[in-house]
Amino acid sequence: MKNILLVVAVSLSWLNPAQTVKDSSKLLAFEPQKKWFEKVQIRGYLQVRYNGLFQTNEDLSCEQCDKSWGGDNDFFIRRMRLIFYGQLSPRVYFYVQPDFASAPSSSALHFGQLRDAYFDIGLDRDNAFRFRIGQSKVPYGFENMQSSQNRLPLDRADAFNSAVTNERDLGVFFYWAPPRIRKLYSSLVNDGLKGSGDYGVVGIGLYNGQTANRQEANSNKHVVARASYPIQWKNQIIETGIQAYKGKFSLLTTSPGVGTLDNKLYTDERIGATLVLYPKPFGILAEYNIGRGPEYDKLSNSVVTRPLKGGYITASYKLDFKGQTLIPFSRYQYYDGGKKHELDARSYEVEELEIGAEWQPNKNFELVLMYTVSARRFEDSDNPNNFQRGNLLRIQAQLNF
Prior knowledge:
With 401 residues, the chain is mainly β. Helix content is 11%, strand content 52%. It has 2 domains: 1-32, no CATH class; 33-400, Porin, CATH 2.40.160.10. It is built from 5 helices and 17 strands. The longest helix is centred in the first third of the chain and has 14 residues, at 2-15.
């Protein structure tokens, strides 16, 4: 339709050249507006894994990481995501993401479950100030907010991911970032630099605190705040950040006979720092946090409030050649604390080294090989003396569309 109008405008110029620009602008002004469903876009990704090569200890596992760890490994669909999103109007944006490979247990696979369902309301013309309403990622930790589609290691580090299982919760979040920084956040993802996405220079939120897809179990709300800023220096981009949250958490599951507070309501608070050197070509991502939360105590066979601490550092190097990308990487992580969302707020002490590489022959396919050297203590009432050490080679094939 637009082309037809331009042809008409050009034809008019032969009759009255002085009116050409004026008439053509009037004609184009009547171009029909897009309907809302014409603004909806769809994308997604699929991850298939195999963790059974060179496994030295079948009892080494990680419930929160990947339910195909340990035991008799087989091929495993880790994620199958479809993402529906769009800028419906200048100040209204929506994002819905279901996952069709959720695994409530190691024997129940490929369930559909909602991950994200939110909309953004812009408060100004540039949407520099905006509210996000619905179920979305809690702005705590760079790696937590980074999409699994972009992350180098196959799983998020225990030290930060233990804060919010599935990284998401239901609430209201306020974000601010000037247009120039929002454009930079977008390019850090689109250019393959492993960015976290646009969660603002400043983010503040109020959310339930029981983690995604769970009803609030108490009258308290969690509060989170984060500040982060990317700085361009010569050819490098450096980002530093700080984040914290505070609230009360109601225990989800406990074993018979395990002692708890009368209301099963525990302090849940953390503060963490982030440093990012984007891979141009050498990159570093480091985070560390401390706090307090529920944790199983085997001496008293009860769940108590205890300090927690831990972090990680990931080093990478981005090589681009003949339209392909190869990113060797290594991550060391440490965590000492509880995991509030697991049975009895399971007690953990983790020390782990991962060495791997991601190969992208084109934008639609990625292959990751990662060798893991792990030492994990994870104890609850059913298994109060459980320390496992082992190594394994992990493989993931990813389709992007």
